[in-house]
Amino acid sequence: MNFTKGTMICAALLTACSAAPQSEAGTAAVPSQRGGGEPYELLGSQVFDVPDPSSGITYQVFISLPPSYGAEPARNYPVVYVTDADYGFPMLRLIGRRMNGAGPRIEEFILVGLSYGKGHEPMASRRRDYTPTAKGASDAPSGAVHGESLRYRDYLRDAVIPFVEARFRAAPAERTFVGHSYGGLLGAQILMTEPRMFSGYVLGSPSFWFDRKYLLRQTPGLLDQVAAIDADVYMYVGEFEARRKGDRRYQQDVDMVADNGTFADMLRARNYPGLNLKAEVLADEDHLSVAPRGFTNGLLHTLPARNREE
Questions:
Q1: Which of 28, 183, 215, 298 fits 83 for a cystine, CB–CB 3.0-4.6 Å?
Q2: Which conformational region is residue 181 in: left (phi greater than 0), alpha (psi within -120 to 50 degrees), or beta?
Q3: Please, which residues have CB within 8 angstroms of residue 209's CB and are 6 or more apart in sequence?
Q4: Mean pLDDT rounded to a whole number for the chain
Q5: With contact defined as beta carbons under 8 Å apart, do 60 and 50 qualify?
Q6: Structurally, what CATH architecture does the domain formed by 52-302 represent?
Q7: What is the C-alpha separation between 204 and 211, in angstroms, rounded?
């Protein structure tokens, strides 16, 4: 019998509803929003304060467990860590679930949102934590702090990852980093300085332009010190992130498409046997529109669904 895609989705939804816990009235006991004008919540998510002992800054991490987590108590899950959690966390949570709506395409994963310093202004927090040198961008406000990315990398390694893996059924060998813009710049630096922290990297529109392309200039020397990179790496950038003066669809001052290509070429030139690299320029996208599409492609590259014994 032939089924349309829509029929398959409806059947999956009916199966899910029939398997849901039943209330005394016989209806599915589905969590709901509080109502009465209360704030909207991302149901099923958790928030924890995880301080950084070296700086004294308290950060928040957001946690979302996969749909099968409670039903498969013996199973360990890959973990996806995403920077800029205020937008990255809900976006990746939805992508991970929607992509499996008509059958598995992406491995189910524990999602960890890496939010900003508690009580800190978001842009100030990301400027400080995601950039490699103290020299800020030209449009940064006077007194803005930059250049603490290595300290923040160590915080992730020594505080956040142990926190997650002590509390949830995480698979330590299956960690994926996802970051966009400054977050992608941070991910590129981690890839070259602590490559084994993650088995997958989604590097979205990395801000390689920062401080006169500091990280690009450092890349040859950093890679000289890396004997192996065993990771799935997906790099994306939008078509309109290229530089084209006079056309407002494009960047006017920096060429992020060229920088992305330069970094990808330097990685490929090392011929690391364990490196599975894919770099794409996504058509009709700019720096603000490209992340949802890039995140989706990145998960398909780093966490494709695999056959699982029933």
A1: 183
A2: left
A3: 254, 256, 259
A4: 90
A5: yes
A6: 3-Layer(aba) Sandwich (3.40)
A7: 18
Q: How many helices (H) and strands (E) does the chain have?
A: 9, 8
Q: How far apart are CA 89 and CA 80, in angstroms?
A: 10
- List, as one string, the DSSP characters of 28-61: B-------TTPPP--TTEEEEEEE-TTT--EEEE
Decide the pairing of beta strands 110-117 and 170-180.
unpaired
Question: 267 CB contacts (<8 Å, ≥6 apart)?
Answer: 223, 229, 233, 275, 277
Token pair of 50, please?
A: 């995880």
Q: What percentage of the chain carries pLDDT values higher than 90?
A: 82
Hunting for tokens 């981690």 — which residue is that?
A: 190
How far is it, in rounded angstroms, from Cα 270 to Cα 96? 32
Q: What is the pLDDT of residues 134-187, one digit of tens each?
A: 987 777 887 899 999 999 999 999 999 999 999 999 999 999 999 999 999 999
pLDDT at 248: 87
The residue behind tokens 């970094």 is 263
Residue 83 burial by CB count (10 A; 0-12/13-18/19+): exposed, middle or buried? buried
- SS3 string of 53-75? CCCCCEEEEEEECCCCCCCCCCC
Q: Rounded distance, CA 76 to CA 170, Å? A: 5
The span from the CA of 247 to the CA of 104, in Å, is 41
> From the centroid of its chain, how far is CA 209?
21
> Tokens in use for 221?
């020397």
- Cα–Cα dist 37/30, whole Å: 20
The gap between the terminal CA atoms of the chain, to the nearest Å, is 24
Instruction: Report the C-alpha gap between 204 and 279 in whole angstroms.
Output: 10
